[in-house]
Amino acid sequence: MEHSAHVHAFDHAFDHFRFDGQRHELRRDGTPVALEPRAIAVLQDLLLHAGELRSREALLDAVWGHRHVTPDVLNRCIAQLRRALDDPAGQPHFIQTVHRLGYRFVGDVRLEPTGADGSDTEGSDTEGSDTEGSDLDDAMDARQRRRTD
Questions:
Q1: Is the pLDDT of residue 28 over 90?
Q2: What are 90-144's pLDDT values in tens digits?
Q3: Vertex 33, ends 53 and 85: CA angle to 5°?
Q4: Rounded to an integer, what distance in angstroms lies between the CA atom of residue 106 and that of residue 43?
Q5: How much is the pLDDT for 136?
Q6: Is residue 121 in some structural domain?
Q7: Which domain does 91 fall in, by range?
Q8: Does a structural domain hold residue 134?
Q9: I need a labelling partner for 15 at 20 to 30 A (CA). Which of 33, 68, 87, 135 fits?
Q10: So what's the pLDDT on residue 114?
């Protein structure tokens, strides 16, 4: 998947949150949010497929691979994410449950260059780079192609 490399060079920003896929880190207003590694992986998958319905099976396979796990582990991760995002299941702003089918990230997600919020001190000298805009365009194009496929 060539497009994933480009998408991971960018943070997923939504509301007061910013997810850095390279660091596997979620921040709220610049402050790290403590999450278990599997919950981070679920969030990353949902963000990479924002707006798309992700079946429970697809999420389990993406995060746990071909290991035999019960659906309860996914339920626990979703509950942890909802607590961290202050996202009530009954009126979701970010993670929507599609009964018996799966989940969809419904928040307004923006792709922004990694470190644009000032949290990344390494490599932050890319400001004004000719490739920065084209990489963002490539990432946005890849995301749009996935939505229309």
A1: yes
A2: 999 999 999 999 999 999 999 998 866 555 434 333 333 333 444 445 555 555 5
A3: 40
A4: 12
A5: 47
A6: no
A7: 2-111+127-148
A8: yes
A9: 135
A10: 83
DSSP string, 57-118: HHHHHHHHTT----HHHHHHHHHHHHHHHT--TTS-SSEEEETTTEEEE-S--EEEETTTTS
| CATH number of the CATH domain containing 99 | 1.10.10.10
What's the pLDDT score for residue 125?
37
Give residue for tokens 């922004």: 112
Q: Per the domain annotation, does 117 fall within a domain?
A: no
Tokens of 20: 């850095």
Describe the strand order of the beta sheet including 25-28 as a list of residue ranges: 31-33, 25-28, 17-20, 10-14, 110-113
The CA distance from 114 to 8, in Å, is: 8
What residues form DSSP beta bridges with 105? Answer: 95
Query: What are the backbone dihedrals phi and psi of residue 98, each rounded to the nearest 5 degrees, phi first?
Result: -105, 105
- The answer to whether residues 12 and 116 touch, using CB atoms and an 8 Å cutoff, is no
**HSE toward the beta carbon, residue 52, CA cutoff 13 A:** 18
Per-residue model confidence (pLDDT) at position 133: 43
What tokens were used for 122? 């390494």
Q: Quick check: 78 pLDDT over 70? A: yes
